[in-house]
Amino acid sequence: MNKDLNNIRNHDYCRKAGFMLFIFWAAISFIAMVSSIGSARLNTESCIDCHVVHAWQDKKEKDSKPMYASILEKTCEECHTSHDSRTLVKFGQNIIPIVKSAIKPEAPLAGGNFYYTSGQIHLKKAGYCTSCHVDVRHHATNAGYRFLGEDIEGIGDPMYEFGDDGHNIYKSGDQYCIACHANFCGSKNQEFGAGWIRHPTNITLPMLGEYSGYKVYRKDVPVCYPNPEKPERSTARVMCMSCHRPHGTPYHFLLRWDYNTMLAGNGNNSTGCFACHTTKDTGTIVQEAEIGE
After folding, report:
1. Whole domain around residue 30: which residue ranges?
2. Per the structure, how many domains does the chain have?
3. Do both 19 and 103 map to the same domain?
């Protein structure tokens, strides 16, 4: 009797275990399928590639939840750092952007590279990658543009702007950067007229005069749009990233170009500041071809 009862229990346990395994692999398959939709979502069949699955069991809190985002097998740097100059790495089915190279990067990605930074955190609350990428969920579908939060919108280039083809499409607004840099970009520093201190942001780039030389888009001097789905030149706006790269550049203040070389009147420069202010250097409107279309 007891033997038969044990067999029934064992059989029932196996059925439940089999069902749980089925659910587990079905979920993983779904994650892998969904992951293929966006380049920032990992194609993986193993949660433990990133998570320490049972670390939550060691938590003392009574109502502690499983799969804490902070309890990871690998940190951000373990995947997004390289020992050489590469800035884009293919790993299995995934294309991984490198944001911190050990030697001079071969090609900058859209956000730049921490290779050029001092390694010092100048703001006490600057924290870690998650200070900006606040909602990192590589298996989710609604974590917002580049995991910057669900309210941050944009269309990301699957190759992260590596090479000459493809580019991101940013939605207008500078509120995200201002969250930390409010004193730098505040209204007092962006007064219009001859007295402004900082370059105004989130303003429409005019289509007349010197600004008419800027066409739809330039990857080296990007603009943003109120509606990324319809990036029309008439709605293009100047943003923080028009001039800066957040992760680092070879130039001061995270600028995309050497500001010291922006000398008006030399007549041979159509980059940097002169991408928009086309008459300031040559004296005539320079019609630039679209870059990255």
Report:
1. 1-35
2. 2
3. no
What is d(CA 126, CA 123) in angstroms, rounded to the nearest whole number? 5
Task: Judge contact between 240 and 201, C-beta under 8 A.
Answer: yes
Residue 171 and residue 229 in one domain: yes
Gap between the Cα atoms of 206 and 62, Å rounded: 59
| Residue 290 resides in a domain | no
Residues 6+ apart with CB under 8 A from 194: none
Cβ contact 168:155 at 8 Å: yes
- Provide the β-strand partners of residue 238: 203
d(Cα 63, Cα 185) in Å, to the nearest integer? 42
* 133-183 tens-digit pLDDT: 887 777 766 667 888 877 788 898 989 999 888 899 999 777 778 777 776
224: β partners: 170, 237
Q: Which residue has the higher pLDDT, 16 or 210?
A: 210
Question: How many alpha carbons fall within 13 Å on the CB side of residue 125?
Answer: 4
Same domain, 8 and 137: no
